[in-house]
Design brief:
mainly alpha, 2 domains, DUF3716
Length: 153
């Protein structure tokens, strides 16, 4: 255990209430486990959702694990089902978009056009097809698990 669970407090019907937690969904159980067991991950400053104390988030601290375990979001946003609304995720998306724009500007990123597809070897097309199928399956799984999918250009 890296930190004790410290419940957040929020206002409900003009009354300050201490948050409780429920692990009825896999995302919630994962968020609580990360909150308690991950080390060296406290966000400074908090994400915008935690700063605003929107809704009954379970933890009093904004915890963001390293790596991809929560997709760049904090434990409170994942627990609350708002992973994509976490300002840390949005910052990552903005960075990735800026990187793609820079690559496009420098000619490093070629758009996938019918002409380019015609020039590709069969093996290259098979690899591309596998990548696309995996991406589609991941998005479908996100939708099934209740997470909205946003695409970036």
């Amino acid at each position: 255990v890296k930190r004790l669970f410290e419940p957040a407090t929020y206002f409900h019907r003009n009354k300050r209430v201490q948050a409780s937690w429920n692990i009825d969904r896999a995302e919630r159980a994962l968020a609580i486990a990360v909150y308690i067991f991950e080390k060296d991950v406290e966000a400074k400053p908090n994400c915008k959702q935690c700063d605003k104390s929107i809704g009954p988030t379970p933890g009093s601290r904004c915890i963001v694990p390293s790596g991809e375990i929560l997709g760049g979001a904090c434990t409170n946003c994942v627990y609350s089902g708002h992973r994509l609304a976490c300002s840390f995720v949005r910052a990552i998306e903005r960075e990735e978009l800026a990187k793609k724009e820079a690559q496009k500007k420098n000619g490093e990123l070629r758009p996938l056009t019918p002409e380019l597809l015609r020039k590709m070897q069969f093996a290259e097309l098979e690899v591309l097809l596998r990548i696309l199928r995996n991406a589609i399956e991941e998005r479908q799984e996100m939708i099934r698990s209740g997470q909205a999918s946003r695409s970036t250009p």
